[in-house]
Amino acid sequence: MSNWIAQLFRHLTAGVYVIGVADGERRNAFTASWRTDVTGAPLPLDALAHFDCRVTGDIEAGDHRLIVGRVVDGALAGADGDPLIYAQTGNLDMSEDLYPETFS
DSSP readout, 3-55? Predict the structure, then answer.
């Protein structure tokens, strides 16, 4: 990785969040209400849980790069609601044909 990219990574933050099953179909990242936490990364107000991270590195993975972060803060909003899991997202990313029927 080039030196300037390494410098950039030292200042990156990431907000990782868990949305609920009830929010899955109406989730639109561009209309959600957001807040920030310790790192300043955007986090949706209605998330079931969140992890506020500082990027610590990356790993080459074929034609992708995996971003690695250290969790510096986080919270569980409450015990109400079931988290939306990938198998429940339908064909949101057009990958439906990649999975066996048992995932549905």
Answer: HHHHHHHTT-EEEEEE-BHHHHTT--TTTS-EEE-SS--EEETT-SEEEEEEE
CA dist., res. 69 & res. 9, Å (int): 10
21-55 residue pLDDT tens: 766 555 555 557 888 889 988 888 888 889 999 98
At 100, which helix (H) or strand (E)? none
Q: Assign 69 to helix, strand or coil.
A: strand
Q: Which residues of 34-71 are buried (b: 16+ CB within 10 A; e: fewer)?
A: eeebebebebbeebbbbbbbbbeebeeeeeeeeeebee
Report the distance separating Cα 53 and Cα 40, nearest Å.
10
